[in-house]
Amino acid sequence: MSDEGSGARLDTWLGEAARTLGVSPLTVDERAAILALARDVAHNVARPGAPLTAFLLGLAIGRGADPQHSREVLTRLATRAEGTIEAG
């Protein structure tokens, strides 16, 4: 599928998912920030950490945390994590 087709498909999916969950659709800026965070986690921590971190971000925001501050804190954590987080 072309990037253009997958972009439209993603837009449709995100709109439907937001409506189904009863939440506002993501803005372009929110999408970009979440994707940037996921990229940083995937590259600096581990690929499976990207969706799990996005889930944790959603939990924190759902519990009242500031979205922008939370993304910034997690991005800083991920970008300094490269090579510093040991497997537990």
Structure description:
The chain contains four helices and no strands. With 88 residues, it is an all-alpha fold. The mean pLDDT is 90.
Summary tags:
single chain, 88 residues, mainly alpha, 74% helix, globular
Q: Could you write a compact summary of the structure shown?
A:
The chain has 88 residues and is mainly α.
State the shape: globular
State the share of residues found in helices, binned by percent. Answer: over 70%
Runs in which pLDDT lies below 50 for 5 or more consecutive residues are none
Structural class category: mainly alpha
Please tell me the overall pLDDT. Answer: 90
Give the topology.
Elements: H1 3-21, H2 28-44, H3 49-62, H4 67-81
Helix pairs in contact: 2-3, 2-4, 3-4
